[in-house]
Design brief:
- The complex is a heterodimer of chains A (627) and B (586).
- Chain A is α/β, with parallel strands linked by helices.
- Helix content of chain A is 63%, strand content 9%.
- The longest helix of chain A has 53 residues, at 256-308.
- The radius of gyration of chain A is 37 Å and the shape is elongated.
- In chain B, a hairpin with a 2-residue loop joins strand 11 and strand 12 (555-560).
- Chain B contains 22 helices and twelve strands.
- In chain B, helix 6 (139-154) runs antiparallel to helix 7, helix 7 (156-203) packs antiparallel against helix 9 and helix 16 packs across helix 18 (483-495).
- The chains are: A alpha/beta (627), B alpha/beta (586).
- At the A-B interface, helix 2, helix 3, helix 5, helix 6 and helix 7 of A face helix 2, helix 3, helix 5, helix 7 and helix 8 of B.
């Protein structure tokens, strides 16, 4: 099994951190992924149009209001000027002002209502979209061949289903409408400013390049530091992980000081890079504020002069000050949002990658059932390898009759998974065919084929649910009686009854609340209840205490009665009594035959047998051994 | 929040820097706020009098003020970056040091995985909040207070409006966060649930497919997914009202100011420029309030992290070296010279921290150099725990363990452990070269010693097959080696130490039979004078031990040679008969 190199990706929780600060992940195919993501939004297109309209309206009303506010200021100013000039009965035109105030209030309310509507509708669009996406991924996962899962870590797949989808979700919720709002604001503000004063507008627009230069300048530098920080952080986390996992050894070998020394070294390096990175990203805001203030001063000064010349009114200056502020805001936001969108597309791409993986070969259309399976298994000229040029099985022929036992023997554990993989059609064989009761397994309905097998392996799998549900996993509609009967046959009924909640005891997430041996007994009970015609068993019980081991042995014997069984054998009696022994080494089947045949062959098996199982006799003759 | 406050006490060494940050932030806030006042001057004096020169002068002054604001902000940003990074460095180092001092029982208490996240992610989270606090949390209140002061100086009567607006805004923030907070938590739970279902689906994939239970699993996923969607929609719909409402309140305040301001201007109590400045101040004030409320959203998450970190810092390791008296020291030296490699258990009992029942009950035995002591018994019988007591990885609850006649609690952990070479059940290797890993046993080991240890451990062959021999790099967790290879390196690591006591914890399980046999022979030749403690699963491997200790539920069920035990000890007989067929027994 290969492990893909771990991607050093910053953990993505809910929401986005300061996007400026992080090295941006880039999608490989931005356009294609983007289009595909849009495709997910298609069912909601009417709602999205609504959102866009609401966003545009809300922004438009926000943009109009400073101009209206400016009118009021001008009117007040005019009244004051008249008074100053000593015009009799001069006063502020309150009728006009109150009109303006009503108009303004109306504008503000409408704008807020549309703003609310836009986010309200977007909430259901965003969540329904990612809901669909999660469903799709989950469906896809159940159609993918095991090859896919064997080649990847669980964490990697898990992160795509949760983190990446989550990332998409928050972008849909927040950033898309922000993006629209920013663009509308930018355009609207420029138009409004132009209607007031082209000269002042020009002054503001002249500050634009400054923003870009500053942002570019700093982002280039800070990215470098952030990459360094990310790398050092990864190193530090790696060290922590390694030291904590090896704590027992570190202590036993007095290596605490060395470990601490390395830690301090990396920690110091992390401090340096993180300090620089934080500072760099911290500088952006002050500089942005500074440029904004330059624009502000320009508006005040030039606007003031223009007012004295009578070119514009004082209210226009007030409006302009507000516009100038509104203008700078979306600029820094779009920079932010474009980073967020980049990382979202990268996330979407990873999700789509799963959706594009090659699926399990679909079962044949006229796939059949076997009504009363006998469990006769034949391998005819079977060849197989996980990788193309490395065959594990070559031209294998075996013929197993109903009720026979096949022992798989070998020094290493590898190989048993191969057997499971082939028999259950988890992997496709390269050549030849495997038949059950004479029918090619590829022609049997896949679900049915798998239900003919019962597996009791060492790495037991129980899920977070009650003991009853775990035993009845294979047949949902099993009666209580049958469940208890299966538990009794598996010698686990007594144990279950000693638990305070009996069969309703919930097995916790890590399945740590019952012992390993008991877990194994439960999986045996599960297999007994499923009543399969062919068994795959692992006899290894090394992590089980002797009493439980005896129980497991008895339960296995009960289970094997009358069924064709493939046993990963560790017990001499099993091997000797097996109808066929498959000898595996380094994952390959190298010899096959029954006990006598293989002994006579004087090959690998004979040597194995002599070292492993006659140890006892040799030791009896007195040589002292260690270990 | 209390947790955060506790952690922030660690910021005390940086108090001067923090004070500087506060001062510079203050300068920045004041200068920033001074700009609208200057603008008011332009309007009320410059424009009213048509004085272009005055306008230009004030404009120049404004630029200077803006520059001052930016410079102060950059300085404070530099300082806060430094504070936050140093702070998290200190915190990380503190936590790491503490964890390194833990004995295994503290490790069990928290869990390795959890300790890792606490030292890494949680501290990163705290660092992020610290920098946010220094950058925004300080700035927002200053802008708030400064804004209020400036507003009052412009027009005190009109400032009364603020008294109405702020409480309304605060109540709004409070109501929304009250409603949204539990939902946010619930979203997190639903996310965890989805995670759980997917993870189970991944680990159990063969079983699920074998039992043809795809539909059932899909149903579970679908259920979790629907719940997540519905809760997320609910929380987002509530959050959708936040910004529009805040903006509305702000804008309505502006309208109110406009109306009352115009009345005051009409009465000659106020000037137009002041009104304009006032509007800008109100906006500043409300924006800073919104900023503060955003920080409050971040705090609960950081607080959870802080809580977890504090928990680690609160654990005091239960094993500490005694303060040594020099006289005792001398005695110890004498004794040690005379008894090398002698181990004795005297009525030893041991309880795990939370357990009601002791795992090890009243165990006594002795072992000396050149002897092999084997420990056998079922899972849960306490074998592995028993041997972990020897290097004092756990502290015994009752009785005493003596090494070379001295209670292990009366020597330093370092001293004790330098006498012991342990080979764990699961070979743990570290990233670095093969030589580095063997050198773990003895830091100053020569190349000769390393080679020799590798030779005995039967590791030479596979090492020389690797491209760079002893200098080949081992990946983290040793993932580029097979289980057997790792185990052989772990053995070499202990051998190079030449300890007085060897502890093998079922250490041959991953070896193939030939290697196993060769290794045993080589070991036997090599280390005649050391004491051996061996935990074994299979009877065949320990039949010739000088002493077999049969453990059953933490108690000694029998002790003696194979030939004695097979007659006298029921538990031993049971183990033997479960492992060997009858013919072999005969």
């Amino acid at each position: 099994m290969k492990e893909e190199p771990k991607r050093n990706r910053p953990p993505m929780g809910r929401g986005h951190g300061p996007a400026m600060s992080r090295p941006v992940e880039k999608a490989k195919d931005f356009k294609g992924t983007f289009k595909r993501l849009i495709g997910y939004l298609k069912p909601h297109r009417y709602k999205i149009v609504l959102v866009f309209v609401a966003a545009i309206l809300s922004t438009t009303f926000t943009i109009i209001s400073p101009k209206v506010l400016g009118l009021a200021i001008t009117k007040i100013f005019d009244g004051v000027m008249l008074k100053l000039q000593g015009v009799p009965n001069a006063q502020v035109d309150f009728v006009y002002i109150s009109n303006i105030i009503f108009i303004l209030a109306g504008l503000y309310i409408i704008s807020s209502v549309f703003n609310y509507l836009q986010q309200y509708i977007m909430a259901s669009i965003a969540q329904n979209t990612v809901f669909e996406m999660r469903e799709d991924v989950n469906q896809k996962l159940s159609r993918l061949p095991l090859k896919y899962f064997d080649g990847r870590t669980h964490g990697e797949i898990l992160s795509r289903v949760t983190n990446d989808v989550d990332n998409i979700s928050s972008t849909l919720q927040q950033s898309i409408t922000q993006f629209i709002t920013s663009i509308v604001t930018l355009i609207g503000v420029v138009i409004m400013m132009l209607t007031i004063s082209p000269i002042l507008t020009l002054m503001i627009i002249l500050t634009l390049p400054l923003y870009f230069i500053v942002t570019k300048f700093i982002v280039v530098r800070s990215q470098k530091y952030f990459t360094a920080q990310q790398k050092t952080l990864g190193e530090l986390n790696g060290h922590v992980e390694e030291m904590y996992t090896g704590h027992e050894i570190i202590k036993s070998f007095n290596r605490e000081e060395n470990s601490l020394g390395t830690f301090e070294k990396i920690n110091d390096e992390l401090f340096k890079s993180s300090h620089r990175a934080q500072f760099m990203s911290g500088v952006i805001m002050p500089l942005m504020i500074f440029i904004g203030n330059i624009a502000y001063v320009l508006v005040c000064v030039i606007g003031g002069i223009l007012v004295t010349r009578g070119a514009i009114s004082i209210g226009d200056v007030q409006a302009f000050i507000q516009y100038a502020r509104q203008f700078t805001h979306p600029i820094s936001q779009t920079a932010n949002i474009s980073n967020i969108i980049q990382s979202t597309i990268a996330s979407a791409e990873r999700v789509f990658e799963i959706l594009d993986e090659e699926e399990e070969v679909p079962e044949q259309k006229n796939a059949q059932l076997i009504e009363f399976p006998k469990g006769e298994v034949r391998f005819e000229n079977v060849s197989f390898g996980y990788e193309k040029d490395i065959p594990i099985i070559q031209n294998m022929n075996i013929d197993v009759k109903k009720g026979q036992t096949i022992a798989i023997v070998g020094p290493t554990g590898a190989g048993k998974t191969t057997l499971v993989n082939l028999l259950m059609c988890f992997y496709e064989i390269d050549q030849g065919r495997i038949t059950i009761d004479g029918i090619d397994i590829r022609k049997i309905k896949r679900g049915y084929l798998r239900s003919m097998f019962g597996m009791v392996l060492q790495d037991t799998w129980l899920f977070n649910g009650s003991i009853r549900d775990n035993i009845a996993y294979a047949c949902e509609d099993a009666t209580e009686e049958k469940i208890i009967q299966a538990a009794k046959t598996a010698h686990v009924d007594h144990f279950v009854r000693t638990l305070p909640k009996g069969y309703d005891t919930v097995i916790n997430e890590e399945a740590t609340n019952i012992s390993h041996g008991q877990k194994q007994l439960l999986t045996i009970a599960r297999a007994i209840l499923a009543d399969p015609s062919i068994l795959i068993l692992d006899e290894a019980t090394s992590s089980v205490d002797t009493r439980t081991e005896v129980f497991i042995q008895r339960a296995m014997v009960a289970l094997m009665k009358g069924r064709t069984s493939f046993v990963i054998a560790h017990r001499l009696s099993t091997i000797r009594n097996a109808d066929l022994i498959l000898v595996m080494n380094e994952g390959r089947i190298i010899e096959q035959g029954n006990h006598e045949e293989l002994l006579n062959k004087k090959g690998f098996y004979a040597e194995l047998y002599n070292t492993q199982f006659t140890d006892f006799d040799r030791n009896k003759n007195g040589e002292k051994e260690i270990g | 929040m209390i947790f955060l406050v506790r952690l922030f006490r660690l910021l005390v060494p940086y108090k001067i820097s923090i004070l500087l940050v506060i001062i510079f932030t203050f300068i920045q806030a004041i200068s920033e706020l001074f700009l609208p006042t200057l603008m008011a001057g332009i309007v009320d004096i410059g424009i009213v009098n048509g004085d272009t020169n005055y306008i230009l002068q004030i404009g120049g002054l404004m630029l200077l003020v803006a520059l001052l604001a930016t410079t102060s902000l950059i300085i404070s940003s530099y300082l806060s970056a430094k504070i936050a990074s140093s702070y998290s460095k200190d915190l990380r180092s503190k936590v790491f040091k503490r964890v390194e001092s833990f004995s295994l029982s503290e490790f069990d208490q928290v869990g390795t995985a959890s300790l890792i996240t606490r030292t890494t992610n949680d501290i990163t989270q705290i660092e992020r909040v610290t920098i946010m606090m220094l950058r925004m949390m300080l700035r927002a209140p200053m802008l708030l207070v400064g804004g209020i002061i400036m507003a009052v100086t412009r027009d005190a009567r009109l400032s009364l409006l603020i008294v109405f607006i702020i409480p309304i805004l605060l109540i709004m923030i409070l109501i929304i966060s009250k409603k949204a907070m539990p939902l946010f938590k619930s979203v997190q739970k639903k996310l965890d649930k989805i995670n759980l279902v997917v993870r189970e689906g991944l680990t159990g994939i063969r079983v699920i497919r074998a039992f043809n239970r795809k539909k059932h699993e899909d149903y579970r996923f679908n259920e979790a997914n629907i719940e997540l969607r519905n809760t997320s929609i609910r929380v987002n719909k509530i959050m959708a009202s936040t910004m529009p409402l805040m903006m509305l309140i702000m804008n309505m305040s502006v309208i109110a100011i406009l109306w009352f301001g115009s009345i005051r201007i009409d009465n000659g109590n106020m000037q137009v420029g002041d009104l304009m400045a006032f509007i800008q101040y109100i906006m500043q004030i409300l924006f800073s309030l919104i900023m503060v409320s955003m920080i409050f959203v971040m705090l609960p998450r950081a607080s959870a992290s802080a809580d977890r970190i504090n928990e680690v810092l609160d654990i005091i390791p239960n094993i500490e070296d005694i303060e040594k008296d020099k006289d005792i020291d001398k005695n110890i030296d004498k004794k040690q010279k005379s008894n090398k490699g002698y181990l004795e258990f005297k009525n030893v009992s041991f309880n795990y921290a939370d357990a009601e029942q002791p795992v090890i009950k009243n165990i006594s035995f002795g072992a000396g150099p050149g002897e092999i002591t084997a420990i056998i018994g079922g899972t849960g019988s306490g074998k592995s725990t028993l041997i972990k007591l020897i290097p004092r990885l756990y502290e015994i609850t009752k009785g005493s363990i003596l090494v070379n006649g001295i209670d292990i609690r009366n020597m330093t952990q370092k001293e004790l452990r330098s006498k012991i070479g342990i080979i764990p059940q699961k070979a743990v290797l570290f990233s670095g070269t093969i030589a580095d890993n063997i050198r773990y046993g003895k830091e100053d080991a020569t190349e000769e010693e390393i080679k020799h240890a590798a030779e005995i451990a039967q590791a030479t062959e596979f090492i020389s097959n690797m491209e760079e021999g002893l200098d080949s790099v081992i990946a983290q967790g040793g993932s580029n080696l097979s289980g057997g290879q790792k185990q052989r390196l772990a053995i070499a690591r202990a051998l190079v130490r030449r300890p007085e006591i060897y502890i093998f914890d079922d250490s041959f399980s991953a070896l193939d039979f030939n290697t196993d046999a060769k290794l045993r022979i080589a070991l036997k030749r090599e280390i005649k004078d050391s004491t051996f403690i061996i935990v074994a699963q299979r009877v065949t491997t320990i039949i010739n031990a000088d002493r077999i200790i049969v453990l059953d539920e933490g108690k000694i069920a029998g002790i003696g040679k194979h030939s004695e035990l097979i007659k006298s000890c029921e538990v031993y007989k049971e183990i033997v008969s479960s492992q060997l067929s009858e013919e072999e027994l005969a």
